[in-house]
């Protein structure tokens, strides 16, 4: 039987842009397993789990995860990493896609993997989405946010 760390390292391998095996990635999870993209408030369950991979790979087809530190603590594996790639696909937003810029991203992240009997029960991904957005030239629009807050406060 593979160790918890080996299972997690295999998950990362299957999520690489040059491999991208959604079915293989899904097979590493328990039947009721979840993939939680915490900063973006998205949860993928069961057969939705591969969508998390294909969605990101559609934006960054050469996606790579550089694992900086991997620590197994019983049934929990903690990973510090950098998510890297080139912005070559449309980036969906609520008001339309950000067109590809060709810019490179190098986004810091930390992942917590919770395993049960040799399968991934829960995967919590904490990524610095704000860093990635700045790297592709989509920095937050603070002016509009301030104006909206002021309008809400005054009721005008």
Automatic annotation (TrEMBL):
Pfam families: SnoaL_2
InterPro entries in UniProt: NTF2-like_dom_sf, SnoaL-like
Residues covered by the SnoaL-like domain: 21-122
Identification of the protein by name: Nuclear transport factor 2 family protein
Organism ancestry: Bacteria, Bacillati, Actinomycetota, Actinomycetes, Pseudonocardiales
């Amino acid at each position: 039987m593979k160790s918890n760390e080996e299972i997690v390292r295999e998950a990362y391998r299957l999520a690489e842009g040059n491999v991208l095996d959604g079915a293989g990635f899904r097979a590493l999870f328990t039947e009721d397993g979840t993939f939680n993209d915490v900063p973006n408030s998205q949860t993928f369950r069961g057969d939705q789990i591969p969508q998390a991979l294909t969605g990101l790979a559609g934006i960054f087809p050469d996606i790579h995860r550089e694992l900086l530190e991997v620590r197994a603590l019983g049934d929990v594996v903690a990973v510090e990493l950098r998510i890297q790639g080139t912005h070559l696909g449309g980036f969906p937003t609520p008001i339309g896609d950000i067109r590809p810029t060709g810019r490179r991203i190098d986004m810091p992240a930390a992942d917590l993997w919770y395993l049960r009997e040799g399968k991934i029960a829960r995967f919590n991904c904490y990524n610095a989405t704000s860093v990635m957005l700045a790297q592709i030239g989509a920095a937050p629009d603070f002016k509009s946010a301030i104006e909206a807050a002021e309008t809400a406060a005054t009721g005008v």
